[in-house]
Amino acid sequence: MLIKNIFTYIYFVLLILLSIFSRSFAGLYISQFRLGELLIGGALVSYLIFFISGRSKILKLVPNFLIVNKLKIIFFSTFFLLVFNSTKEFDLGSIRRSSYVWTLIFLLFGAYLLKDLDKPIQSYIFAINLVALYLFSYGYYPNFIIDFFKQFSDKFDFIKASDIFLSLLVANQIVIRSGFNKKISLVFTIFSSFAFLPYFISQSRGSTLACLVFMFIFLYEMRNTLIKYKIFTFITLIGGLIIFIFSTLLITQRIENNSVFEGNFQNEIVVAVDDNLKNKNIKEGFFGFYLQDGRLMSKDNTTNWRLDIWQDLFWDLNSNGNILIGYGFDSIFPVMLDPTAPGRLGRDGLNENVHNYFVNILGRGGLLQLILFIILYFTIIKNWMKIESKAMIFSYLIPVLIVSSLDVTMEGVQFPIIFYSYLGLFAYSD
């Protein structure tokens, strides 16, 4: 029990650090390997150990063998693709491109380890984490932290909107499930969501849409409380609106008068936000769709870029007879090798992601693996419905799947580890 408690606290600290420092933390070097690589390698080894160890030991982690059976099938399908659908020698690149499979094991880790950690304590820590993320995202990122990651990590990256949204979502989900008064849950959700919404609007349509969907589902679930405490609800919404206006003014001030900030790092954030505001048309991104020459198009350049890749990948898979088992994991998708500059690989030539969780699964593992993943999620939902309402389930799953359908999330390290850990806690620990 002592050993388990130690692992529980280490695991929780890892989740918090991944949440607050995101990609920069995952890039920390430990000897010649990055932390993210070690986590993915550990996940793969855990897969092998658990599935070799037998049913009885698995059931100690999660008392539902249906989910384990689905994980086994996905594991063996991926192993098959790694071995038999490869055109060159097995390498670390194949492990990295298949990481969306190996991170599934954190479902079991979350269900086993996090269930014994006091939920109110988790909610307090995640609330503090949100305060730090708010300051970081709105320009107040300490120089000493930047210098630390520049020295000891493979790169320093400002935290992506999708990663911030996931931390916001997890914090709210824990607060809602921690036994607090419903009024406290309402205040926390409204205030925290409205605080980050202006940042999401400036940076990411996917995170914006996901945040709005979460708020809608949450308010629907809380509808009886909203009606019962009308005056309290009204005051809470007014408070949320004030916070939204303050955050909007803060991010606008950051763009228009960056002299209020000190240091080059703030200026970098200002430029990034300004570029996003100039290059992204929210209305066209959401509604500017049309058909042309049998293809779905968008008036927004960024959206159209993604639609173009997704459709090219599907037609390429189909025309080459790879629609069932995909391309495998040993190389970049052929449709990403656009010769035009800067091309689909980006200005640095390093982008190989299609910015869609399900399209990536289709491209790597074909229709067969995509169907397996869909079955996996339906299995999780079916079990989850035994302990929670549909609204609570969908308030966690749907926003994550929305943002993952419009951005690079599940193909990384920090996002899927946090998501699956708390999915395991919520769906299988009670």
Give the end-to-end Cα distance, rounded to a whole number of Å: 19 Å
Overall strand count: 4
> What is the helix/strand order?
HEEHHHHHHHHHHHHHHHEEHHHH
Number of helices: 20
- What is the typical, i.e. mean, pLDDT? 85
- Strand arrangement, major sheet: 1-2
Please characterize this protein's 3D structure:
With 430 residues, the protein is mostly helical. It has one domain. Helix content is 71%, strand content 3%. The chain is built from 20 helices and 4 strands. It has helices spanning 2-26, 35-53, 55-61, 65-84, 92-97, 99-102, 106-113, 119-137, 143-152, 161-177, 182-203, 205-221, 223-228, 230-256, 264-279, 282-287, 301-319, 357-384, 390-404, 414-428; strands spanning 29-30, 33-34, 289-292, 295-298. The strands form 2 sheets. The chain has a two-stranded antiparallel ribbon. A two-stranded antiparallel ribbon has the order 3-4.
List the helices and strands and how they pair.
Elements: H1 2-26, E1 29-30, E2 33-34, H2 35-53, H3 55-61, H4 65-84, H5 92-97, H6 99-102, H7 106-113, H8 119-137, H9 143-152, H10 161-177, H11 182-203, H12 205-221, H13 223-228, H14 230-256, H15 264-279, H16 282-287, E3 289-292, E4 295-298, H17 301-319, H18 357-384, H19 390-404, H20 414-428
